[in-house]
Design a protein that fits this description.
With 256 residues, this protein is α/β, with parallel strands linked by helices. 15% of the residues lie in helices and 29% in strands.
Length: 256
């Protein structure tokens, strides 16, 4: 088992690839109203593995409170939304719908949790699942599932869901702490945390380390182990190692 650690400032700045000069796309915050528009519904879920690289769990989890974006055929954003705690989503788009794409992104931005799961600190591209559709009447996209194999987007959504679960736990456990403990402040949420993860990628290479997940103190960013040299079957991974994810997120919580 690798050791989990927090990198010093010197280590976190030893490689220019950890610098956060690029910025991710802005979160899609404001829904648009369309008179006579079409309703598009569905449910978003993610597969996960209960034992690292072991078997895929039979029942996917809902993708909770995540960003939903709809693009037109020109690639312009025409609608914003979020999934419910059940993973269900419902948005309205212009009628007729011609070659539209609905995307569920591995990003959350609300008063309690702000977290983006991104591919790397150079590109800053967020992970997602998507479906295309057209029509002149209501559209049900069924279930969109982030897989725990192939593209492995289920790993990105599992990381996101662990952060959400941690914040919900902290909120519940500290709700009345100020009435019990002196100087205890109830947990009300955090600033944005950027988490870098990619299938088969060891982020330890960014800081001249072995296979490891870590938290960078200077930029307050998480790096989660996705494997090594494109190998996700036999090398160590952390995208389904919930204790490792929460450990590194715990450093972020302490920092902010």
């Amino acid at each position: 088992e690798k050791s989990l650690q927090i990198f010093s400032n010197a280590a976190s700045t030893s490689d220019s690839s950890t610098a956060s000069t690029p910025q991710p796309d802005a979160f899609c915050e404001t829904p648009t109203t369309y008179s006579g528009g079409l309703t598009v519904t569905g449910i978003a879920k993610y597969e996960y593995r209960t034992n690292g690289n072991g078997a895929i769990n039979g029942t996917p989890n809902p993708i909770r409170l995540a960003e939903v974006v709809v693009y037109n055929s020109s690639g312009s954003i025409i609608q914003c939304g979020t999934t419910a705690s059940s993973g269900n989503f419902s948005v309205t788009v212009p009628n007729p719908a011609t070659d539209f794409k609905l995307q569920v992104n591995a990003r959350i931005s609300n008063t309690l949790t702000k977290a983006y799961i991104l591919n790397n600190p150079t590109d800053m591209d967020h992970h997602f699942i998507s479906a295309t559709f057209s029509g002149t009447s209501a559209v049900n996209l069924g279930t969109l599932t982030a897989p725990a194999d192939d593209t492995l987007e289920g790993g990105a959504f599992n990381i996101l869901d662990q952060i959400l679960s941690a914040n919900l736990y902290l909120e519940a456990q500290t709700a009345s702490c100020d009435s019990v403990f002196l100087n205890c402040s109830p947990f009300t949420g955090t600033p944005l945390v950027k988490v870098f993860w990619s299938k088969g990628v060891n982020p330890g290479t960014y800081v001249n380390q072995g296979a490891i997940s870590y938290f960078v103190t200077t930029s307050r960013e998480l790096y989660i182990l996705g494997g090594s040299n494109d190998d996700v079957d036999n090398s160590d991974t952390d995208h389904f190692d919930n204790s490792s994810i929460i450990h590194e997120y715990g450093h972020f919580i302490e920092s902010v």
